[in-house]
Task: structure prediction
Amino acid sequence: MSKYFIYINQKTEGPFRVDELIAKRLKADTPVWNEGLKDWGRASSVRELKDAIDVEPPPFVRLTAGKYLTLKRTAVLVLSLIILCVGVAVGMHYKEIHDLKREFRNSPEKYVSVSVEDINANLLFGGVSDLKLRIRNSSPFFVTQIKIEVTYVRLDGRVYGRKEVDYSFLPGKTSYSIKGPSRNRGVQVKAKILSVKCQEAGL
Result:
């Protein structure tokens, strides 16, 4: 069994067995040494002496009525500030969403757009096939229906014809590629949004 020397009351004492040190009620910072240690160290740093260290509880502080009321008032004040901050944040968010909905109703074309993504045109005889349109919704709102006008243009720039395409259900912040109608005349295609329906924005 290991035996330890201790430095206490400005002198070296020992050697002591661990069970003897338990009776001495060592402090955590009491210097200790044995043959297995290179130098003196604190008792708390030696695992074998864990049970020999006398643990002192922190000083007891009686919570008086005045201190209790102060703590209670402080807690109420902190809670009130938290509720106020949350309320302000919710109010600002609501106003921001409300303003965005109004802007969306006034100018849906700023948020919902369509463009020609791909086209297979027969330049010799005319005709459009494999038409792909890219529709985008940059708003956070769920668009329920989009009406698109597809215009077919001849090689000389004259309009050959127009066709309307309906597309339903375009979530916010998304874009999709959709198939457009083919035509046996025209070599160019233009596309634009005719109308947008969005229940979430009141449109």
User: Anything to note?
Assistant: Residues 56 and 68 are 26 Å apart (CA to CA). Helices lie at 18-24, 65-106. The chain has a mean pLDDT of 85. The first helix runs from residue 18 to 24.
